[in-house]
């Protein structure tokens, strides 16, 4: 190689250059350079409280008021600093060790608190007696796993950026992440353990989301996840809460392999205060998220390398072979759909907000129908965007954050969600400019299901604590891509129950080429993928509560108007917002109504700010014959779907069951 003639690769000055350079400084032989007044220093200021670069760096990070109460030291390993009050740090490690215990070999793994790259040296061995390893002890018992317990968002950013490919800070400060091969949930890979109790309690069979697995197969998957997690240098542990109703709060622990997952759950679950964490104790429910590590297809009941397994008896969930973070959030939601009805509390797949006068509205709907968009309303207090409980005392959010769809997100149409995408927010599977890191929300290169997960307080008018009085309005959202449902209709109780049990929406599979036919989906209780009991159990509770509170039901079509997907167009968000405003204000209750044919829906003649001609869907269609055919087609789909519910009684009142059956389409 050409250059300075140096062949061994080391850089050196040529002799000539040295000779012609600055005059030599001669120092007294043997003089200590640090004390010699002849020695040049590069600064004259008095030195701070450090002797080395590492110490200087250690000053940069100001010791914080603890975000977790876990004290450092006392045998529990922590870097170099820290006073020593051993108790809580130690008990956390013991608790996590118990969570991660192998059920077939040694008990708990050896755990160290903190990052493996930190200078930790001292070992904390929770349960293993000090002895020479016996022949039946595996190598895994000889290693330590670092526990990153309830890290702050900033710490999780650093972990993600350092170690997880595809993690970047966007121009507004959000953490962009990739969820890998899976960019949505895998309902076909969900399994629920069927044991003596759940066999009789849960909804099984046709239409049910609960596909069974046995206890033994669960334990095989659990061991697989735990072994994987214990084999890592480090695991993330979140101890958090579900449900803002203090009397019905559930303690959850999430053990995961990625900072992305830890930050996601930090945002989505309720964050504990330091005092609460100090007394956290044993979690009520634990998730083992092994992420990309697959399940073994030779395991009984497994049909792919992805498995999401819920064991209600053990109060555990295992995730293998998917990194889509929504599995954790929605998995816990399923658990709440089991636990809460046992306490006579109704769990709801709905958004929820409250007006200045304390009027509460629920927004039910399947994915993509507008729960998040419409519950996030600048003129109202946001209680939550997706999962709620309705108890004797009112409503409470289950979660501590929101999970908004980002596709085509715009500052103009959804300013509050736009502004929530800042430091701390997890931004999944979006595409951004490699230099400016500005996100292109229209880009579907990775997936159509791009998402933002942020703490609820990122929405300026969120209601903290996220609880409210009994709902006044129950809004059922359907994104009808057939374009035949009215933009808004008022429902009586039987109709509300009929549509709640039906859980209809019809979306188009994105804007992919060749997809012309809207696909109808019926998902009982607008969340069949998450319910645990038979839909009529939830419906009966909803009917009873709505009746007792005198709440009004509404059906709002956030989908197409003037034609099906392809010929009509999606109802403008601005119009839907006006409709929702009129529901909230009570003005729509006093409007004059007419009844539609076939579905028998009461539609208003006028809504302020909405063109009247779109309120009756037929008016907006040019071809009335095609309209009628499409309407009949949809009515047929409703009727077919409801067949399975004909034999079920809803509530104690046989009369209501009859009314509900009569509330469907008539043709
Ligand atoms: N008329 C409308 N009403 C509600 N949402 C609409 C409407 N038109 C377009 N959208 C878009 O549809 C999507 C609704 O998604 P989202 O609110 O996240 O649904 P969910 O929370 O029910 O899963 C958003 O991207 C929103 O911008
Ligand atoms: C996150 C989800 O819910 P939603 O689309 O209702 O917000 C989901 O279904 O995975
Ligand atoms: Ca910012
Ligand atoms: Mn949502």
TrEMBL record:
Residues 46-58 have a biased composition (Polar residues). GO terms for cellular component: cytoplasm. It catalyses: oxaloacetate + ATP = phosphoenolpyruvate + ADP + CO2. Keywords: ATP-binding, Cytoplasm, Lyase, Nucleotide-binding. PROSITE patterns: PEPCK_ATP. One of its GO terms (biological process) is gluconeogenesis. InterPro entries: PEP_carboxykinase_ATP, PEP_carboxykinase_C, PEP_carboxykinase_N, PEPCK_ATP_CS. Gene3D superfamilies: 3.90.228.20, Phosphoenolpyruvate Carboxykinase, domain 1 (3.40.449.10), Phosphoenolpyruvate Carboxykinase, domain 2 (2.170.8.10). Its EC number is 4.1.1.49. Signal peptide: none annotated. Pathway: Carbohydrate biosynthesis; gluconeogenesis. Its main location: cytoplasm. Belongs to the phosphoenolpyruvate carboxykinase (ATP) family. Monomer. Involved in the gluconeogenesis. Catalyzes the conversion of oxaloacetate (OAA) to phosphoenolpyruvate (PEP) through direct phosphoryl transfer between the nucleoside triphosphate and OAA. This is phosphoenolpyruvate carboxykinase (ATP). It comes from Brassica napus.
